[in-house]
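Record type: monomer structure entry
Structure origin: computed from sequence
Chain ID: A
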Amino acid sequence: MTFLTIGHRGVMGVEPENTLRSFVRADHEGLDVIELDLHLSKDGALVVMHDAQVDRTTDGTGPISDRTLAELRELDAGQGERIPVFEEVVDAVRAPLQAEIKDVAAARALAEVMTRRDLLGRVDVISFHDEALAEIRTLLPEARTALVASRYGLDVIDRARTVGAGMLVLNLRRLTLELVEKAHAAGLKVIGWTVNTPDQLKLARGLGLDGGTTDFPEIRRATRYTA
């Protein structure tokens, strides 16, 4: 069974998260897919950062949406790295991407870039927000999408199907064999997050997951021992 390893914000366990340094390291380490997060700057740029605020991962403070891209570029995102925009990541790595969007506005901006750069075959759009995935489905009917959830029940399967998602990306700690089997029966792939230890990898494989999102490149190498 093929088990995908997805680099979480690059490889955030060993490099500054959501930076070009982290993404290039993930690509070099052979992660199958690279996951990243998108927000819109004040002037509409698709910037790569997890939080809505810059405080945790840079030397600045305040909301991303209050700063222009030029102002965001002045911040240190870790080890001298600058906050990248989505297009820079596309150009910097060869691996397929999972782009997580936080709202409908980001969905529209991402759809425009994916169309302009012909990225439908390379980028999966993922989100915790059903309405953002529904917007992507409207704008790009052929796009591959995934519903992300942390607290969930079996209803997450119907939610995914309602918005046309083909995959679930779910908190590993709440996953059950029943849910995985029902999701697979419904034609959905299931990814678990985060898979950071040998025990978590064994659990993911035992549940029959299609892949795991990880902070560490070592998990990619360890998958060969848990097949």
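Annotation 1: The CA atoms of residues 4 and 211 lie 4 Å apart.
Annotation 2: The chain has nine helices and nine strands.
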